[in-house]
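Sanity check record (used in CI):
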Amino acid sequence: MPHSRPWSLLTDAEYALLAPHLPLTSPGRPIAEPRARLDAIFQAVTSTLPWRQTRSAHARTDTVHRTFRRWAHAGVWSRLLKLAARKRAPKTLRRLIDWLSACHRRTYRILGLPVLTLARRLNLPQALPGPSWMLPDPNLSEMVHRAVKWLLTRPLTAAARPYLRTCIRLLRTAEGRRRIHPSLIPA
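Expected output for Transposase:
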């Protein structure tokens, strides 16, 4: 998925908006240069390369990736995506939505289904790690489970069987595809 803005270093205004939301300590010690780490993270996630192949002048790759994971567990990327997706978000922050979506996409392997749910709730398909119709849909799954529960509280009749078959098909759809072809996965 092409980014509307290619990677460049953060401006002072952009960093000033993001800095209050960043944990400035790593377990046991402060982060030496949080702005440089954030720049390195954005550089890595906006490229099509895996983490191990990204290079940054600001920090070592493993350090940058470890910081990214820690911030993902701390909810930084989800929180920033929510802030940028607001209708009244500052224009400076809205310019970063592609980069924040790329960070959010990469947290899927770390955080799982909540990442999908948030991206769908914010109506940001670019924050999903693949085509929405191929990914699990927890909302659809819950709705179908409620319908099945309701159907099973009544006597099972011949008329209810087609509804149950449809529910089974919908549950298969809601679980998503096991594999998504790499060409369909956003960069």
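Residues 12-129 form one domain. If this sentence no longer matches the regenerated tokens, the check is flagged for review.
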